[in-house]
Amino acid sequence: MKPVYRKFVLIPGIVVGAIAIAVGLAQLKPEPPKKEDDKLDLLVEVLPLEIATERFQISSQGTVRPRTQTVVSAEVSGSIVSISPKFIAGGVFEKGEELMRIDPTNYTVAVDRAEALVKQRKIEYDGAKQLRSQGYRAESEYASSAAALASAQAESVRARRDLERTYIRLPYEGMVLSKDADIGQFVNPGTTLGVTFATDQAEVRLPLTDQDLAFVDMPAAADIAQSGVSEGPTVTLSAIQKGMQVEWDAQIVRSEGVVDERSRVTYAVARVEDPYQLHGDGAPLPIGTFVSADIAGSTLLDVIRVPRVAMRGADQVLVVDPENKLEIRTVNVVRTDSQYAYLSGGIVAGEQITTTSIEAPTNGMSVRTADSVAAEVASSDEQVVLRDEGD
């Protein structure tokens, strides 16, 4: 055979032979041992349940408002001749202190005229009375002089009252909210001079839902009407002042007695004593401050508290039974807050619930817990020790 033809025969033969050897070696290689696919159950955290007595706190919020606020108006006409330096926005005044004076000249003259007329009518009355006793005057003349005297006396009272009204005073200790008139201004009866409010007490309207009211002992309207005493639950008000959280004590004194038609809430009124601390040494609580309120609610016995994260929906929990099986349980929720749900039925103390979020739980689903994992590890270690001792 020529060398050229031998080359074309040997090359394919070598390739075919290599393939045959590779296939033979692959068939002779033993198969790797098959490992069983062990699928582990989901590892969850569990919480043992305990019965407790809970005192609830009801949260609300509101704005501090004055209990007594007055629109100060002029009762007589005239020019303002003096104003107290305290009659400015933010000024604090005492009870009965003179805040403003309207020109009293005309009213002083009116008082003098009225007093002179009273004296004249008194002389006429005394004369008519004496003549009547002597039989020289008729009964009608005596009655006329008596009426004239009474009219003069009434005019004197009115004149004195008008003179008193030239002094602008208020029957409480307070603060000026706004000043609407100034010195030299002429005012008529009804002209607004300013707005003031009392500083002895302030109030906060706190909205409460129907569920909140079930845990708040509100003062009854009938009791307040009969005794005038309104002892409601205590309230802790809080707000941020100068970058720090400050708290004040308050007390629920009444309910407004109606349900708001738009929001369906009932407003409770909390009262704060001496909000500006004019007679104390605490932090002032200015009118208009927005505050958070924690109301001392009622106490409930034999309830189970669970974290909100453990709740599935509004009223379900995932119970882990002794065999580490899941059970979707419907429970009776008494109340919830931002952190916990409080249960009174559907579950008992001693049972365990999971706090792990499970995407699609089913009844009877197997899970692992920290205790079960620890038991598995202990059992495995024990088998290894026994095997070593056998060897």
CATH topology value of the largest domain = OB fold (Dihydrolipoamide Acetyltransferase, E2P)
Listing every helix as H and every strand as E from the N terminus to the C terminus, the arrangement reads HEEEEEEEHHEEEEEHHEEEEEEEEEEEH
CATH hierarchy, class of the largest domain = Mainly Beta
Biggest sheet details:
6 strands, antiparallel, barrel
- The shape is elongated
Strand content: 35-45%
Helix content: 25-40%
Chain-averaged pLDDT: 85
CATH architecture of the largest domain: Beta Barrel
Report Rg: 46 Å
What is the number of strand segments?
23
Q: How many domains?
A: 3
**Tally of helical segments:** 6
> How is the largest sheet built, in terms of strand order?
3-12-15-14-13-16
Q: Tell me the structural class.
A: alpha+beta
Low-confidence stretches: none
The first-to-last residue Cα distance is 70 Å
CATH superfamily of the largest domain: RNA polymerase II/Efflux pump adaptor protein, barrel-sandwich hybrid domain
What is the compact description of this entry?
The protein has 391 residues and is an alpha+beta fold.
What are the defining features of this structure?
391 residues, alpha+beta, conserved putative lor/sdh protein from methanococcus maripaludis s2 fold, Elongation Factor Tu (Ef-tu), domain 3, six-stranded antiparallel β-barrel, five-stranded antiparallel sheet, 23 strands
